[in-house]
Amino acid sequence: MLINEAFAQAAASAPTGADFMSLLPLIGIFAVFYLLLIRPQAKRAKEQKLMIEALQKGDEVATTGGQLGRVSKVSGNYVILQIAENVQIVIQKAAIQTLLPKGTLNSIEKE
Fold it and tell me: DSSP character for 101?
């Protein structure tokens, strides 16, 4: 026969107390993910929610689709947005991405 018999060797026993040390890299990875990904995203989501709740008539906003307009009416989950003179659209509050500084629309129209 060309193949010799193989015998398994007994595994070396791990030193006691090394269990916690082997978990440190995993704990470190979770800490990095929390600090760099989860926490900032939660903070942005909270700021977005507060901005949407504080919408009022006359605010100038930009939607997720890129539309710029002035809020005409806020009701429930919807906002009526004036995008041009005598042109109004109804959008969901969740579609509003950014609250623009007052006078932004006037400065864009003059250009």
Answer: P
Region label for 107, one of left (φ > 0), alpha (ψ between -120 and 50) or beta (otherwise): alpha
Q: How far, in Å, CA of 96 to CA of 68, rounded?
A: 10
Closest CA to 62 of 32, 8, 100, 18: 100
Task: Take residue 91 and report the two structure tokens written for it.
Answer: 């959008």
Q: Give 20's pLDDT tier (boundaries 50, 70, 90).
A: confident
What's the predicted TM-score (pTM) here?
0.66
Residue 13 is given by DSSP the state P
From 66, 92, 71, select the one nearest 81 (Cα to Cα): 71
Locus of tokens 């509050």:
93
Place of tokens 């440190």: 24
